Amino acid sequence: MMSVSMGSKKLNTCCVASMNCLPDEFIVQILSLLPTKQAASTSVFSKRWRTLFAFWHDLDFDDSIFWHPEEGKQDRDDIQESFRSFVDRTLALQGGAPINKFSLKCGNEHDDEPDNVHIDRWISNALELGVSELLLCLSSVTRHHFPSNVFSSTTLVKLTLGTKLSIYSFPSDTSLPALKVLFLDSIWCDIEEFSGVFLAGFPALEDLTIQHNDSFPGMTGVISSKTIKRLSISYNYADYVEFCSIYALDTPNVVDLYYSCYARPWYSHCNLDSLAKATLDLRMLEGEGVIDTDVTELINGIHNVKTLHLTSSSVEVISVCCKGGLPVFENLVDLVFLGNIGQGWKVLLPLLLENSPNLKTLVLSALDHWTYRYCFVGIRITPKNQVKMLSIMQYEGSAKELKQISHFLLKMECLEVLKVYAAAVINDSKKIQLTEDLLKLPRASSKLKIQVM
After folding, report:
1. Helix axes 428-439, 399-411, angle to 10 degrees
2. pLDDT digits (tens, 9 = 90+) for 168-202
3. Which of 143, 175, 205 is a domain's end point?
4. Which of 401, 357, 408, 355 shows the shortest CA–CA distance to 379?
5. Fewest 10 Å CB contacts: which of 17, 155, 347, 409?
6. H-state helical runs in 21-114
7. What angle do CA 132, 136, 140 make, to 5 degrees?
């Protein structure tokens, strides 16, 4: 399509001439497929193309394009000035035309450097143009303040802030009435400011994601919102878990929860009454952390869930650290249970089957890699279970797996479908043999159908 990299000048001229025959909106659509820097560089081909930035709806600025891949190049003054000039020129070409998305990724800046004046001006410019999606990835910046209109925009629908930013306070009149999606990547701020001022200013917020990497401490405290429907929390910071993670969720309208974190010593309360789907990826601290860890309140908080996905590490944590006992999961219909490490599954799976009277679908994975030989053989499966579909992932067809599946088929009288998903190494001829072996297994249900995928 574009002739920038072609060797023939004549061919370049032909391609540009051909494109110049297209309507403006077509050219804009074609150039919008390129990163902003590459799209802007095409303006050298035609003066007409320079004016097309008035139709540009998505702007993406990333300073790494200017210094990658040379190490240390980003510290050179001429490289930084080149990036600043490029952003200034591009925004000037935009004129007063509205934009939908403004993405700014840049690093190696500090609060006491005048370069932040440029960043603030760019952000304010985008907000004045009515941007609906704002992504600010200001790496290695300790920022105490943003332009005030970041927290008072009436057009922002999606806001992303990161990374490794410390925000000590928010404007008392914070108000983003149209904001629906908020993504925070390694942000530290006072939790009272966060819930009491920041979140309180988003009356339409539906989707909140908070993540922290392993070298930056997170917020601690309560996430409180009556409007959030999807909540994702990922903390990979193992140090000072008690002081750098969320201990309470006051989010009564959340229907979809993803929670990945080192298990805390305690949880205050979890108001998740509307929860329909939850994925837990709990991890155990090394050493003696298990002695003081208790996830009872968190597990009680998700008792209304309909679909529950437990990672292998979560199975181990819950089996050991849910010291108040499991609640009854009255609404649980679908359970994905990945427990191929440790011995926690031996305790937790029978309890979940017993405490989930309406469970209909059970998914297990990689039976050949579970810790103990024939691990499920003899495990208690309540005769009252209502499981109708059993799915086995990453099936390799070993005698160990076959014997374990047989145990389930004999104990699940309501079972209607057994779905076995063969591992990637299994070819079609092997699948035929696996199917024949599975069909020979005795079963308690006369309605059972076996499918090998």
Report:
1. 40
2. 788 899 999 999 999 999 888 877 888 888 999 99
3. 205
4. 408
5. 17
6. 24-31, 36-41, 47-50, 64-67, 77-94
7. 175
pTM for this model (two decimals): 0.84
Residue entry with tokens 């629908």: 157
Domain around 7: 1-51
Q: Which of 284, 237, 278, 233 is nearest to 255 (CA)?
A: 278
- Supply angle C-alpha 301, 306, 311, rounded to 5: 75
In a domain, 237, yes or no: no
Total domain count, the chain: 3
Judge if 160 and 65 occupy the same domain. yes
Residue 366 lies in a domain: yes
pLDDT under 70 in the chain at which residues? 1-56, 66-77, 108-115, 140-145, 214, 240, 243, 287-291, 339-342, 366-378
Residue 22 sits in the same domain as residue 84: no
For residue 209, how many other CB atoms are within 10 A of its CB? 16
Q: Are 182 and 156 in contact (CB under 8 A)?
A: no
**Position 294 in a domain:** no
